[in-house]
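Morning run. Coffee first, then this:
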Amino acid sequence: MPVTWRWVAWFVCWVVFVYIIFSLGALERLPQKTKITAIAVLLPLFFVISNPLALSQWKEEHAHASKGTLSPRRPLLHRRHYPDSDVKFQIGPGDPAPKGLVLTWTGKLGDPQFDWLGSTITIVRVDGVLKLSTEVRNRNGVIVAKITNNICEVNKSQDASWEHNYSDDALEVKDERGRIVLQISILEDRVQIQGEWWHENGKGVRMMRPYPYDPIKPGPVFILMNPPL
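And here it is:
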């Protein structure tokens, strides 16, 4: 049973329990106002007590979902309007300054920013929201993860089953060695991305921030990878 429905069932049980204890026995003789006040306290108490555990279980369930839609976390206050021509991206995570270099796309809108051996990375802004499209393959050419306009799908088949963590605004995929091969975060002002892109011929490209981070040279690192001999 999904976590959400499981906790809805627990809340129904709690409501029934509260009803029973105030309808039977000595508590039934309490004044009506006292019972209403007690019930008004006990029902919200369920959410206060269960919320940390329920939220933890929901995040764990959500993290391993094979499908989902990435969307930026938008603050309730001080929201900015971005024109569709404002397309920015950053290689790797971190604050844009001084640890990260934010790049502004000045090419034709809708054209791929990168073309890695047949796998493209395309970032556009539609109605003010940044959207990313790309495919990630393993060394055998099998698609491991596919993102189309922020709609992501992770391949769960046996020959491409890698560990992944998914949240509302981010996706992280690890290979069988536990190494991060794709890391994406969708922000309001930019897309953060780094990872590995392989081709069916066994060659690949790794795009990442240098580690340890260099505060003087924050630019990305591109590594051409060949199949092992």
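The chain has two domains: 3-63, 70-225. Good start to the day.
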